[in-house]
Design goal:
This protein is about 35% helix and about 20% strand. By secondary structure, it is α/β, with parallel strands linked by helices. Helix 2 packs across helix 4, helix 3 packs antiparallel against helix 4 and helix 11 runs parallel beside helix 12. About 5% of the residues have low confidence. Helix 5 links the parallel strand 1 and strand 2. It has 14 helices and 14 strands. The protein has 3 domains: about 50 residues; about 130 residues, Leucine-rich repeat, LRR (right-handed beta-alpha superhelix) (Alpha-Beta Horseshoe), CATH 3.80.10; about 150 residues, no CATH class. This is F-box domain-containing protein. It comes from Pholiota conissans.
Length: about 400
């Protein structure tokens, strides 16, 4: 044990930091090390308490956590990732006593505000003190990441005060959540926030328009975006993402889920091809009669993309296919996918380093070609990709409803 105390503190810190990277989700090894000696205990705490998840279903904060913070207040400064679930139980909202606990977290970098209930939690119904503490966390100088899940009437213009915010993720945020709480509305001269990453789902059209100034004064500078993820269920969302792509010239990552066709995908991406390095594309083809034509369209768009000057290094394609039953149509699908295999040949692209293709059948009936197909069949359809160790091809069975 004496040998441990002879080590410089920086070495102990580095050892535990490296252990975190290979530890399990429960940090079992780090927790075991914290019991080994005082030196390990001190350096383990910042990893053990780096992430805290609170669920208001329990109505009151966890007693053990309150006791730990009372005995060792500095633990609050170790919390970097905070998840707070506003679950409503029997129409009861979170206890205001959560405010006393949350205000001790002074170095939060990532905040997730979620709701596990079916109905969204209306922001203005949350106890006033608790709302103030959550706004306080969002204005911390360490704050960088905000995720909102199923929260209604969030005061969006209040984000203008979150000057260090760099990543925003929206999920199940309904279009009627646009009203702004006057108490947190910022002045019109606030500088635009340099958001680096933005994720939106199909409910976020109107909110996105307001946040980026397509409908009113912007809060975020769209040209500062480096990463963009969008779930385009309708053409309106697809058009909005197109406008965002036109206004940003530095996008390096794009994840796009398209439901309504991709006949102009290459042109869609042309403004960002000089900067785009990672492109993740999901495409849903739900009409059996259109599978062949749309696979042709997809192949042509990627061929056009390849021919344009680009620096794409990583391609990920996930296809949701309504697989036809009859053998003749199945053969057509197989031929179309084989044609896509040739287009995605890494040797034909200037910068491409890896390709992944995932085919998901959205049928619930059994189709031998695409429900857990043998490796030999995938090799027959994708011989080029599967002969390259930098590529991955897999098939996902349909989800059972």
């Amino acid at each position: 044990m004496a040998a441990i105390y002879s080590l410089p503190l920086e070495i102990i810190d580095s050892i535990l930091g490296a252990l975190v990277d290979i530890d399990d989700e429960r940090l079992s090894s780090i927790k075991a090390c914290s019991l080994a000696c005082q030196a390990f205990h001190l350096f383990s705490r910042k990893h053990i308490f780096a992430s805290v998840s609170l669920n208001s279903t329990h109505q009151k904060p966890p007693r053990r956590l309150k006791e730990l913070l009372a005995a060792t207040p500095e633990i609050g400064s170790y919390v970097r990732n905070l998840e707070f679930s506003l679950t409503v139980r029997n129409n009861e909202l979170p206890s205001p006593t959560f405010s006393d606990l949350l205000q001790k977290f002074t170095q939060v970098q990532c905040l997730t505000i979620s709701n596990a209930s079916i109905a969204p939690v209306v922001w203005d119904t949350i106890p006033h003190g608790l709302r103030n503490i959550l706004h306080y966390i969002m204005r911390l100088p360490t704050f960088e990441y905000l995720q909102l899940i199923c929260v209604q009437n969030f005061p969006w213009k209040g984000l203008a005060e979150c000057t260090t915010l760099r990543q925003l993720r929206l999920k199940a945020i309904m279009a009627d959540t646009i009203p702004v709480s006057p108490a947190v509305t910022s002045g019109t001269n606030s500088p635009l926030i340099k958001l680096k990453a933005y994720t939106m789902d199909f409910n976020s059209i109107q909110i996105t328009k307001k946040l980026f100034g397509f409908d009113g004064s912007p809060i975020f500078d769209v040209n500062s975006l480096r990463k963009l993820s969008a779930f385009c269920y309708e053409s309106e969302m697809y058009s909005l993402v197109r406008e965002m792509v036109k206004k940003t010239s530095q996008l390096t990552f794009l994840s796009l889920f398209a439901f309504r066709g991709c006949s102009d995908l290459s042109e869609f991406l042309s403004p960002i091809l000089p900067s785009l390095r990672i492109f993740k594309f999901q495409y849903s083809i739900g009409n059996q009669a259109l599978v062949g034509n749309r696979l042709d369209m997809l192949r042509n768009e990627f061929e056009s993309m390849r021919a344009r000057e680009n620096i794409i290094e990583e391609l990920g394609i996930r296809l949701h296919l309504d697989i036809p039953r009859d053998p003749a149509s199945l053969l057509v699908v197989k031929e179309k996918l084989s044609a896509l295999d040739k287009v995605l040949d890494i040797s034909r692209w200037s910068s491409l380093r890896s390709v992944s293709v995932d085919i998901e059948s959205i049928n619930t009936h059994d189709v031998k070609y695409f429900n857990n197909p043998p490796r030999e069949l995938l090799r027959e359809i994708f011989p080029i990709l599967l002969s390259d160790s930098r590529c991955r091809v897999q098939s996902t069975p349909p989800r059972r409803r």
